[in-house]
Amino acid sequence: MRSIVAILKPLVWCWMMLNLLSAPIYAAEKPDGGNSNAQVMEAFNQANAERGKYQISNARKQQVMFIMGITLLAFIITTVSLGVAMVVFAKPVFVAHMIFAGFSLTLAIAHAIVAIVWFFPA
Description:
- By secondary structure, the chain is an all-alpha fold.
- It has one domain.
- 81% of the residues lie in helices and 0% in strands.
- The protein has 4 helices and no strands.
- It has helices at 2-28, 36-51, 58-87, 94-119.
- α3 packs antiparallel against α4.
- The protein is flat and about 60 Å long.
């Protein structure tokens, strides 16, 4: 364990010194003419103008949410089944259980984000 610390300590020190020395270089760089704010706003205005072209119907949104929900339910049932098999029947399925738990969590977060973005606009 000491050998890893002995190797990493000088590397971290060098990385920190390089960051400290390069900070004035980045601070001295000037933006190109100061019109970058106008360019950003123009890009947003163009995006808002084109936004109406690519609207997804509510029926299609509900279909996507339904498919995500069914898949999430299947992942949760699989995770529970693997957990029961692991605890009750002493099967060596811990890795598969954790993989499906990760899939379930990821899909649950994605499902919640999509629901908020599509069905609860500000």
